[in-house]
């Protein structure tokens, strides 16, 4: 049976990349799949977080899920640390994954920067916790943006090595095709990698110093208008065909954003706007972004004003998530030879 798992870190503001690269796909997948959508607070503390801000940020991600149209009844929306099996399985995976595998993770290299001796061990082990998130539910599909592809591939490696290392014990328990499935990343679409509005060669990110580099889900109409008006472009008019976007990363990014927000293919967007100057295209893009994001931001603010409601959804989600996770974690313990 197919099962979807994904998560978002409660750090900083949610931006258009998180929305188009991940949340929009979550909203679609709930129609066809059993889904778990997690707020990964344990991943957030791999970097320093102020406790009160972290608590707020956790609720804000849950609010964003709901405000974007994810139904908390049909799906499981929950917070990672409230299901302690995530940490338990992560430890087992720390003993399965190899140092060499984690040394190759580009996100670790980016986040650690030059001062490798001084980052937390949690930041290094981040991907084994992510593998635990996914495999604790034996999830088969993982909707993420392009930047998480390497982590999902590592998750497959961990699953495969666990299946191999314990193959006899697994077979003895009646599993004929290994214990963990090899989960597939779902990355496709025109917004798998949304780029910075200031620099088409950098991805849109929570950590970029410039507010003008990203649209936040919480931005009001004025902010959206300004940021899109100031978005970097080149002097040529828009091309009429995809070919013409080659070597024009800023134009390609804006067309991709328009396509993802409108649900119209990039070809069709160019057929409509090809030959136009950026200024008129940008006005249409700003109108579209305000139309799509405005109501979500407003609903998020409304939900954040009712933390009791959010906390109840997260508690309920944790109970439902644990009902799936606990029997799987028990089997892992039996397979490995841990007494319970
Ligand atoms: P995080 O919190 O950095 O980002 C959340 C989701 O947003 C996507 N994303 C983007 N997509 C397109 N363009 C961008 N510029 C962009 N920036 C971010 C990310 O790819 C992600 O899908 N490690 C994960 C969280 C995680 C997780 C998991 C995901 C923890 N456990 C298990 C899936 C399954 C992360 O840091 O995402």
From TrEMBL:
Entry GO terms, CC: cytosol
GO molecular function terms listed in the Swiss-Prot or TrEMBL record: ATP binding; tryptophan-tRNA ligase activity
Enzyme kind, highest EC tier: ligase
UniProt motif 'KMSKS' region: location: 203-207
Cross-referenced PROSITE patterns: AA_TRNA_LIGASE_I
GO BP term, pick one: tryptophanyl-tRNA aminoacylation
Chain positions recorded as L-tryptophan binding sites: 133
Cross-referenced InterPro entries: aa-tRNA-synth_I_CS (IPR001412), aa-tRNA-synth_Ic (IPR002305), Rossmann-like_a/b/a_fold (IPR014729), Trp-tRNA-ligase (IPR002306), Trp-tRNA-ligase_bac-type (IPR024109), Trp-tRNA_synthetase (IPR050203)
Subcellular location: Cytoplasm
Keyword Protein biosynthesis found: yes
Keyword Lyase: no
Protein's name according to its UniProt entry: Tryptophan--tRNA ligase
Organism: Rhodoblastus sphagnicola
Name of the coding gene: trpS
């Amino acid at each position: 049976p197919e099962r979807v798992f994904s998560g978002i870190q409660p750090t900083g503001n949610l931006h258009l990349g998180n929305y188009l690269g991940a949340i929009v796909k979550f909203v679609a997948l709930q129609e066809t799949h059993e889904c778990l959508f997690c707020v990964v607070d344990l991943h957030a503390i791999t970097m320093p977080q102020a406790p009160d801000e972290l608590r707020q940020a956790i609720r804000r991600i849950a609010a964003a899920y709901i405000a974007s149209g994810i139904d908390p009844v049909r799906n499981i929306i929950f917070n990672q640390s409230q299901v302690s099996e995530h940490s338990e399985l992560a430890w087992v995976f720390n003993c399965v994954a190899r140092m060499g595998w984690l040394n190759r993770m580009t996100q670790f290299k980016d986040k650690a920067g030059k001062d490798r001796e001084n980052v937390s061990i949690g930041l290094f082990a981040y991907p084994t916790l992510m593998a635990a998130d996914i495999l604790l539910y034996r999830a088969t599909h993982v909707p993420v943006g392009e930047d998480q592809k390497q982590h999902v591939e590592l998750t497959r490696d961990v699953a495969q090595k666990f299946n191999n290392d314990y193959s006899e014990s697994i077979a003895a328990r009646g599993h004929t095709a290994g214990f963990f499935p090899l989960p597939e990343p779902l990355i496709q679409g025109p917004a798998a990698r949304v780029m910075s509005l200031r620099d088409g060669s950098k991805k849109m990110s929570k950590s970029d110093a410039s507010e003008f580099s990203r649209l936040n889900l919480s931005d009001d109409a004025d902010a959206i208008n300004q940021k899109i008006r100031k978005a970097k472009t080149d002097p040529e008019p828009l091309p009429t065909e995809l070919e013409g976007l080659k070597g024009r990363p800023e134009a390609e990014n804006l067309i991709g954003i328009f396509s993802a927000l409108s649900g119209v293919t990039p070809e069709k967007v160019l057929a409509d706007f090809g030959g136009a100057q950026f200024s008129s295209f940008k006005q249409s893009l700003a109108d579209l972004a305000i139309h799509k994001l405005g109501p979500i931001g407003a609903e998020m603010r409304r939900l954040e004003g009712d933390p009791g409601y959010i906390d109840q959804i997260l508690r309920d989600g944790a109970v439902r998530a644990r009902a799936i996770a606990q029997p799987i974690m028990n089997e892992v313990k039996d397979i490995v030879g841990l007494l319970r």
